[in-house]
């Protein structure tokens, strides 16, 4: 599974996510996601910061995408995220990728 956390994505914005050129289906879309490790729009602190409470006003978009096993490559892998459609929100701010996570399991763990 590939998890993308986006900042300033509009409620109706749609995204195309690809891993090594393979289109990934979005299995979870959470426009109310909150993450204590993301400080946007403030700058990220240096590593080793003390945990802080989650800002109740924080609005991030979480996209979880299913990744077929054959999409992964040994060595470097390339992720591409593009906006395929914009929602009705105005103004339309620049969407920023805040965090990208790959959740992997070994075949022997299944």
Record the SSE blueprint:
Layout: E1 2-7, E2 14-19, E3 22-24, E4 26-33, E5 60-65, E6 79-85, E7 96-102
Antiparallel strand pairs: 1-5, 1-7, 2-3, 2-6, 4-5
Describe this structure in words.
The protein is mostly beta strands and 110 residues long. It has one domain. It is 0% helix and 39% strand. The protein has no helices and seven strands. It has strands at residues 2-7, 14-19, 22-24, 26-33, 60-65, 79-85, 96-102. The strands form two sheets. A four-stranded antiparallel sheet has the order 4-5-1-7, with no helix packed on it. It starts with a strand and ends in an 8-residue tail after the last strand.
Q: Main traits of this protein?
A:
mainly beta; 110 residues; single chain
Class of secondary structure makeup: mainly beta
Mean pLDDT level? 86
Strand portion:
35-45%
Overall number of strands: 7
Q: Characterize the biggest β-sheet.
A: 4 strands, antiparallel
N-to-C order of helices and strands: EEEEEEE
Percent helix, as a range, is: under 10%
Q: How many domains?
A: 1
Instruction: Enumerate the strands of the largest sheet in spatial order, edge to edge or round the barrel.
Output: 4-5-1-7
Radius of gyration: 15 Å
Q: How many angstroms separate the termini?
A: 14 Å
Number of helices, where a helix is a run of at least 4 consecutive DSSP H or I residues: 0
Q: What overall form do the CA principal axes indicate?
A: globular
Stretches with pLDDT under 50, minimum 5 residues: none
TL;DR?
The chain is mainly β.
């Amino acid at each position: 599974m590939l998890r993308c956390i986006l900042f300033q994505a509009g409620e109706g914005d749609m995204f195309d996510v690809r891993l090594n050129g393979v289109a990934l289906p979005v299995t979870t879309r959470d426009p109310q996601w909150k993450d204590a490790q993301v400080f946007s729009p403030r700058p990220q602190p240096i590593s080793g910061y003390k945990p802080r409470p989650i800002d109740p006003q924080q609005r991030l978009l979480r996209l979880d995408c299913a990744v077929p096993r054959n999409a992964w490559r040994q060595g470097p892998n390339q992720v591409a995220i593009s906006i395929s459609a914009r929602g009705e929100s105005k103004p339309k701010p620049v969407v920023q990728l805040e965090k990208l996570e790959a959740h992997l399991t070994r075949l022997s763990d299944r």
